Each structure stands twice: as C-alpha cells, then as structure tokens.
Amino acid sequence: MVALLIWFVVKKMRNLIDKIGFVHKYIPMWVKTLTASFSIFALLFFIGELLTKNIENISVSYEDYASNVGIITEKLNRLLGINLNEEAIKFLQDFEFTSYLESFFNSISELLGSMVMIIFYTMFLFIEETLFQRKISMIFNENGKKDGFQSTLKKIDKSLSSYISLKSLIASMTSTLSYFILLGVGIDSPVFWAFLIFMFNFIPSVGPILGTIMPALFSLLQFGQFTPFLIILISLGIVAVLIGSFVEPRLMGNTLNISPLVAILSLAIWGAIWGIIGMLLSVPITVTMIIIFSQFKGTRNIAILLSEKGKV
Q1: What is the pLDDT of residues 159-180, one digit of tens each?
Q2: Would you give the DSSP letter of residue 202?
Q3: How far is Cα 187 from Cα 232, in angstroms, rounded to an integer?
Q4: Which tens digits make up the pLDDT trace of 234-255?
Q5: Using CB atoms within 10 A of its CB, is residue 42 exposed (0-12), middle (13-18) or buried (19+)?
Q6: How far apart are CA 45 and CA 51, in angstroms?
C-alpha cells in the first residue's frame, strides 16, 4: 500500500514536470519518472533520518524529564486540594515515555528497513503502468465499457489527487504554525512534534486532537510546569480549530464525498489492520471504494450509504 501511494505521488510529480514545455518536448518519459522517483525517495530518507535523530535526542534526555514527574504530582495535589493515591503516583513514576518513543522509532525503522522492497514494488508498478492501457483495450472490446472503466479510473485519480494535494497543503500550514509555537515555548525537538502534527492531520477527526494533546503532555514532562502546557494546548488548539473549521472546508469542499461516521469507522478498521499506515490510508481507501461501488448496480446502494449526502 505504501508503494502504491508513492507510485501515485510520483506519477503526479512526473505529470507536473511534464507540463514544462522543453521537458515535455525533449526529455524521455523514463527520465521524468526516474527524476520524480529519486526526489520522493530522497525526501523520505531525509525525513526518516531527521526523525531518528530527534527521537534519539528525546530518549537520551528522558532521565531529566523523569525527575519532573514528582513535581507535577505535588502541583496537582495542591491545585486540586487532594492527595493522589499511591497507585496513581506509582503509575506516574513508573511511566516509561521512552517505551512509546521506542515503539514509534521501531515503526519508522521498519518502514525504512522495508524501503528496498517498497522501491521494488514501485518499480514494478511503473512497468505495469506501461502495459495497463493495452490490457484494458483487450479486456473491454466494446467502446462503451472501455470508456466507462476509464471514466472510473479518472474519477479515482481526480479525487485522490485533490485529497492528497489539498490535505498536504492544510497539514503543512498547521505543522508550520505549530512548529513556531513549539519553538517559541522551547520544547525539545520541535521538528519531531511538527512532523507528528503534519501526519496526524491525515487521520480524520481524532488526528488533530492527538496532534494538540501529545506535545502539550510532553511539555509537562520536560518543564514540570503547567504554564508551557497551557500555552501549547491553547495555541495548538486554536490553530487546529481555525484551520479545521474555516480553512479546510473552503479548500476541500466536497472533494471526498464520504460520511463522517464512515470515516471514523474506516479509521478504526484500517487502523486495526495496518496500524498507523492504515489510519493514514483509511480515507483514500474508502473514497476509492465509494467510487468503484457507485459504478455497478449491485453495489451502488453501498456507495450511497458510504457517501456524505447520498450523491454518487
């Protein structure tokens, strides 16, 4: 699935490069494909290395953060006027933040470790792409059926292109603003948290909430004070609400045509199957299913149920 997503992004980048006059006229298609592929994979490796260094820096500093757990507990006791029981205190003191970082680090490491296989899958997808149109012509001898199938492919291509490009723009805006807020507060490894916020923006509904809460909670461990926590929580919350409520609807419009309930259920299902990758791909997969189901009489009702307002 990662290779399929990369193939799609590379194809779009290749098409953008091909719009340049002299490139379209003089540069062979395989050179444009190779250039776009190299750019995407180089970017992925750069991000992987950057995240690895940031996670290592946070892990090394964990002992300094652990000493703030007792301070936070005492402040909660005074603030709430209660005494946290021994079990709660023990839970806070035994909380291993590094185990969660290690889990996330392992996910990135596994993805980078699988990069060779992903490259091979992507390469064969491009080889298959050159033969696909010929196969379609042989399968659908009748022009009507061939045109209908190609129309479905174009709808999928258009919907996913709009979703990925617009969502990337929205996520970039959110993560950039968040980075400067986190940098101003002085949180460790702001690049790491900004990247998490960028990725969480692709997870419907719960993603922006997690992107706001996680760096705020981490600031409690780092500073042992509530002021940075409140600044981050409120500031990132305002950014998420403003962009999510005003900017995103105007940019995205009805691009997806997917029911909010279906989006949440899809998130849960694909997240259970493929973890974080499944969560990130849950919306594109569901949109593709809606478009395909809408093309056949037997599955059209399913597409209507999955859609936002019943229009397919």
Answers
A1: 788 888 888 889 999 999 999 9
A2: T
A3: 9
A4: 999 999 999 988 888 777 765 6
A5: exposed
A6: 10
